[in-house]
Description:
Blueprint: H1 2-19, H2 23-40, H3 45-57, H4 60-79, H5 81-92, H6 95-113, H7 116-133, H8 138-149, H9 151-155, H10 160-169, H11 173-198, H12 211-218, H13 227-237, H14 242-259, H15 265-274, H16 281-287, H17 296-315, H18 319-322, H19 325-349, H20 352-363, H21 370-378, H22 381-384, H23 392-401, H24 412-424
Helix pairs in contact: 1-2, 2-17, 3-17, 4-7, 4-14, 4-15, 5-7, 5-12, 6-7, 6-8, 6-11, 7-8, 7-23, 10-20, 10-21, 11-24, 13-14, 17-23, 19-20
Amino acid sequence: MELWILAAFSAALIACLAAGKSLIFALLAGFILFFSHGLKTGHSLSEMVHLALSGIKTTKNVLITLSLVGMLTAAWRISGTIPYIVYHASQWCDGSAVLLASFLLCALVSALTGTSFGTAATIGVICMTIANSMNIPPMYSGGAIMAGSYFGDRCSPMSTSALLVAAITKTDIFTNCRLMVKTAVVPSILTCVIYASMGILFQGSSTSSNAAELFCRSFNLSWITLVPAALVIILSARRIDVKAIMITSTIAAAIIASEIQHMPLSEIFASCLLGFHPADPDLARLASGGGIVSMADVVAIICISSSYAGMFSGTGFLEAIQTHMTVLSQRITPFGTIIATSIITSMISCNQTLATMLTHQLCQSVEPDPQRLAIHLENTVIIISALIPWSIACSAFLAIIDAPLASVPLACYLYFIPLWNFLTCRPKEAAPI
């Protein structure tokens, strides 16, 4: 019955995507399916409500982080931080290099900070603004930014995802990072080649409507506007909590917006809440966005999808599926089984952390070696979660950089990692090559 319910949920998701409707409708259908399953298997109505709410409570930290991200991206806009960087970057960067540069810059920042969302809210928004100013379709730039931002999510010692995998597998994180870099060499090179080749399509792209001059005319582009960005880099290097970094950078940007850009405090608060929406249509096309309200749809998706986690744990929904894992591993290798399991757990949990824990729980018997299991998890569920449109790792990320869902198929690196390791991983080796 569980498999039929999953099939019905998948059908609802596919139908919703095909019709171009909000994923919230499909997720509500999933909620009804999983809630009804709990009632049918003997759980009371009050118990199911409690389980659903318990799942939502686990995402409190994510919801707080997303609110801070919305404020940060708006504050960087009104302070002139993003306009300053875009203005100077546009002087030397042309359309042919934007995709490759976006991937490499986001990969570098994510490796330093260990956070994909933090990378998206900082250098990701900047790269998207540069690409928009050069008339590069958002689906291309969004894919490159997403691919780069998840580079450090799996191989940075500061990444909470990497720390989680090391903790649940009881392995050394630095050994894991070294092996993860090794397994990412070929996918990274292939990704660079593809984005460099795609850049040929935009060889003649240049700033539209004199974007650089527009920013120069609309903002005071003093070097002081770089302080909020510098704070992120400095505090990240000192391993300060990411929420504290975002708050500090937002406050600094708000002060600069008031003192340097001469923006009234009422407008600063309004921008942090509702987003920055300048009256000039040309400026709005490049610089509008951000704000806590911009995360509203994502918050709804997170709340609905996270309720699944509580219902699954309380009803034992996944226990029936676990019996199929050993049989499957004999047909498509342990790594192939972990890929398949990762797709399922990412689809039904809609949460990178929960998907990782569920995949580890379901696949411990498939891959008994802790070191190899740790690397397999990093090369599958950690990045596969970002490919599921209704997952937090995907929906929230795209909302931050204001990129369309069509960006996901162009996040090449996220496909190459599991594919390359599936082709080269041998069950008897100590670690995938």
